[in-house]
Amino acid sequence: MRLRYDLHLHSCLSPCGDKDMTPLNLVRMAALWAIEVIALTDHNTVGNCRSAIAVGETVGVTVIPGMELCTSEEIHVICLFPGIEQAEAFGQMVASTLPPVKNKPKIFGEQLYMDAKDKVLGHEEILLVTASSISIEEAPALCRQFGGVCFPAHIDRTSYSILSALGLFPAHLGFSCAEVLPKCAIAALTAQHPPLEGLRLLRSSDAHYLDNMAEAADTIEAEQSTAAAVIAAIKRES
What we know:
Elements: E1 2-9, H1 23-32, E2 37-40, H2 49-59, E3 62-70, E4 76-80, H3 84-95, H4 105-108, E5 112-114, E6 120-123, H5 139-145, E7 149-152, H6 162-166, E8 177-180, H7 186-192, E9 200-203, E10 218-221, H8 227-237
Parallel strand pairs: 1-2, 2-3, 8-9
Antiparallel strand pairs: 1-10, 3-4, 4-7, 5-6
Helix pairs in contact: 1-2
């Protein structure tokens, strides 16, 4: 079945995420835009994924638990998992690799844990937008250990992308999927970086605000509308 997706969304747990990006709001917004599969990918945490999955079950949106990992090179990588238990175990591991820098909400924004009904459960004190000690070389194998899949985020962006950090797309890492933003000129990008030819380029919104979510407009072929099936489809691409 062909599914409309957005595999890169931030909630209010990301310090740069708008307060209106609660698990309840963002999943319902996906339903309004007829997006059948989404992934919640906050910076270096999966802390609001369980709540988003619960909302998704009530409105018919498949929510994949995920994370936007910041590697030691400050490369953003989308990590997706078939179940919340694997995602939370990965999240605990990543938390142990983050520097103990406390968040300053007045500068970076609040980092809010929310339940499925918009109740604030707490605040994350450690700043989530710092770089972990996990390198881009280590990320794919670590993700696989937890049953997941990962791919470089917004490679067409001039900051926090694999191309901006390394200047090239490293074929030896085994990525044959990568993310681009909705308005990316793919032909020009692949002409500039030939290793991208033949790769599946997944378009997602990287939404930090509810009105950004309308930009998602791509589809993926999967056997079912489940997290495991979508991840299996992504793995087949890679």
